[in-house]
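Weekly structure sync, notes
Attendees: PL (lead), two postdocs, one rotation student
Agenda item 3: pending single-chain targets
PL asked that the sequence for the first pending target be pasted directly into the notes so everyone works from the same version. It is reproduced below exactly as submitted, 165 residues in total.
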Amino acid sequence: MTLQGKLFFFCGKMGAGKSTKAKLIADENSAILLSEDEWLAAHFPQQIQSFDDYISYSNRIKPFIRRHVAQLINLGTNVVMDFPANTIRQRLWFASLCNELGCDHELVYLDLSDQQCLTHINKRRQEQPERARFDTEAMFHHVTQYFEPPTDDEGLNITLVEGDA
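Predicted structure, written out during the meeting:
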């Protein structure tokens, strides 16, 4: 019997450090790292011009991602998904995948203040000018209005990371 891989995914406001933490966890767990930003940029270059576009294209790739992740997990590969789990609905998608596969999982919740996130966003905008159009304080506030912190009653294995840890 083959051991299944473990699935790692992330919750945190825009700028909380989800992508940075995903890379670290992938390295620490000899895991495959799947980045939503990379998949969207590769499959839909120049087509995401608004938050609504992002939602639409993100939903388009989910069936393919789901099959890909299922194959990797069932081969015994650990998978780190740098895809947001920032709303109850998004986390339900991850939970249904984990339940379907019967795999171990970890939701890493990066709990930072708005100011900490905005500081990270400003730094990222300087380091990655191609992101400047979306990495704004206005976009942060727009996206944050939908943010729902995870709760224990969601039945997920949550690891809380507070501040800039």
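Discussion points:
- The chain has a mean pLDDT of 91.
- The helical segments are 18-28, 36-43, 51-74, 88-101, 114-127, 137-144.
Action: rotation student to compare against the earlier draft before next sync.
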